[in-house]
Amino acid sequence: MKYPIIKCLFFFSLGILLNINFNLRLQTLFLFLLVGSLSILILVEFLLKKNKFFKINILEFLIAFLLVVSGIGIVNLKDTTGFPNYVKNDHSLINQEHEFEVSIIQPIKINKKKVSVIGALISCKKENAKKIIVGNILIHLAYDTSSAKLLPGDVIQFSSKLIELLGTGNPHEFDYAKYLKNKQIEYHSYVNSQWTIINHFNTLSRFSTITKNKCLNIFKNYGLKSDELAIASALTFGYKDELSNSIKGIFSKTGAMHVLAVSGLHVGIIYLIISSLFKLIKLSYNLSWIKEIIILLLIWVYAIITGLSPSVLRAATMMSFLVFANIFNKNSSIYNTLGLSAFFMLIIDPFLIIDVGFQLSFLAVIGIVYIYPIIFNLVTIKNYFLMKLWTILCVSVAAQIATFPLSIFYFHQFPNLFLISNMVVIPLVFILLVLGLSTLILSFNISLSSLIVKFYSFLLSLLIEILSYLESIPFSVSKGLFISSYETLLLYTVIFLFFLFVEFKSLQIIRLLLTFFSILISIDLIEDYFFLRQKKITIYNVSNHIAIDLINGKNHYFLADQALINNPAKIKFHIENNWHFNDLNSPEIISLKNYISKTIRWENLTIAFVDSNWRDTNDVNIAIIINTPKLSDELFNNSSVKIIQNGRSFINKLKINNKLIKNNHTIYDVFKRGSYIYELQ
């Protein structure tokens, strides 16, 4: 077995995914384990006594089965939502004000108006009795000097309501509620100024955050300001709270966003820096492991300084396994080593498997390990400088090839200028990281540190100017790219087969490659055919606004209130992704200002925009209710009318519901249930 760890990782991950998607509880797990194990053992013992080949296969199957079960079990162990005292299991705690005690578990996020923290529930005061509860919640506090100084490990006490996190339900909009739910956070709470710190725990995360804050203050004290300070903080420590939207946009559109999150690139640079310094010290072969251990310790020191973010933890863990593999087994497969590091991380936190950062970081490393040598060996370069440039280019291309299908699947865009930007950014990041760490190390020498910071500031300005220029180039980024999960898997299959063919030049591989590529193209053509034939009405959930799409093929009318039309950022966030997904042309935008209390005709349908002034007696197919306490009896009497509430509240809702039930109607509440989609046959 060439890659045993990879095979084990596959079945272990399969078990994790099965539990996450189908919520398999312990009772199911034990029954499944008992029946399955007994069945397999009986098969081996009574049917295959003399057949060693089948016995080995059955044994492998049993190991795979146990790994799947282990994956299911580890999720149950780590999933607090299955605990009896999980907050969701006591409905009286939700949407009612109680006194809570919460321990902050992650560094705070600060914007101009509020401070957000993730906390672990400890207890709740209910009916003058303290009840122990578990579960993670998102807490929003008003920004002030006290809230801005909160640290992981602080235990705070406050009175507030726990509110369930709900997504808007708009098609293809980023679902923040789902994102948090994947991190086992189902509730949030808005806390007024009446909160207090009642205790604190000295955790590693607390120490790490304090250390990071001290390092950030060194940068501030040496005169770095505004965008330069924000970029320096992100590049060196992964602290991105102070990055402006414009800077984020520049880095994102040019494919350089990865340098603003401390990750494998930064850890790799740190490794190269320290290794280069150790070359000055000539150790014997037998003592080379001391160098590796020291390097590893320094990498973890850097991880602590950066605040132990998930990305740097992943990178440091991977590097640790690679270093240990190098020390103890020089001939070990890098794939098995990477598999072992992933195995370890999934044991610690099985929910990492659905984390985008975790997926992308491992794919990037696999791309560099497998694809990079193939691309690099295509060209032989003797010039030292050109060879280093070619190396950077090959590494960037390899990482991009390995990650772009998943990036498109999640983020729906592709940076067309990533090669140019990375050829500039990576060498600059190397220098900037060296200068940033030098500033910290030499901070006791004010004159020398000030000199370093001046050069540092110049390079930061240069970086911003270069990326701004690249971002201004037309077609610097391709937006609105949508592929399904099946297309993503097919695309990875095509990529894998392509590089297999480049490596082995096999005719059989090229046949498989052409087959899967044809399937991929066919799916795209079929989707395009259905997009041309689509005909539907989409009523979106945009708070305090009306937003409706009337879609016919690739053309559509977008009906909205004038306030929403004047807010393109809101349209882009809530709605634009759906336009791209359905491959729609630019919309014909219509203001609803003159249509309220009236009806419109579209594709043999009558759509009414009903408020308290609505008096239209024409037949209505769809009635969109706009925050009104009154509904005409004509709407109730016609059972074919689809009544859609586009607002947060009905006054006299009980009376309305009784009328609707009597006439076999139901209200579709867009605010509570998400967008309403009506498909025309």
List the helices and strands and how they pair.
Blueprint (H helix, E strand, L loop, with lengths): L3 H19 L3 H22 L4 H27 L19 E7 L4 E2 L3 E13 L2 E4 L3 E7 L11 E7 L2 E2 L11 H6 L3 E7 L3 E6 L3 H18 L4 H12 L7 H9 L10 H15 L9 H18 L4 H19 L5 H15 L7 H21 L7 H28 L1 E3 L2 H24 L4 H27 L4 E3 L5 H20 L2 H27 L1 E5 L7 E6 L2 E6 L1 H4 L2 H7 L1 H6 L6 E4 L7 E4 L2 E6 L11 E4 L7 H5 L4 E4 L7 H10 L4 E3 H4 L2 E4 L2
Parallel strand pairs: 5-8, 14-15, 17-18, 18-19, 19-20
Antiparallel strand pairs: 1-3, 1-6, 2-3, 3-4, 3-5, 6-9, 7-8, 10-11, 12-13, 12-21, 13-14, 16-17
Helix pairs in contact: 1-3, 1-11, 2-3, 5-6, 7-15, 8-9, 8-10, 8-14, 9-10, 10-11, 12-13, 13-14, 13-16, 14-15, 16-17
Overall average residue pLDDT: 85
Quick one: how many beta strands? 21
Q: The biggest beta sheet, please?
A: 9 strands, mixed
Fraction of residues in H or I helices? 40-55%
Oligomer: single chain
Given the C-alpha coordinates, what overall shape results?
A: globular
Distance, first to last CA: 55 Å
Total DSSP helices: 23
Would you mind describing this structure in some detail?
The model has no long low-confidence stretch (mean pLDDT 85). 53% of the residues lie in helices and 16% in strands. The two termini are 55 Å apart. It is globular. It has 5 domains: 4-78; 87-201, OB fold (Dihydrolipoamide Acetyltransferase, E2P), CATH 2.40.50; 209-479, no CATH class; 486-533; 535-679, no CATH class. The strands form 4 sheets. Strands 1, 2, 3, 4, 5, 6, 7, 8 and 9 form a 9-stranded mixed β-sheet that branches. The protein has a 5-stranded mixed β-sheet with strand order 15-14-13-12-21. Strands 16-17-18-19-20 form a 5-stranded mixed β-sheet. With 681 residues, the chain is of the alpha+beta class.
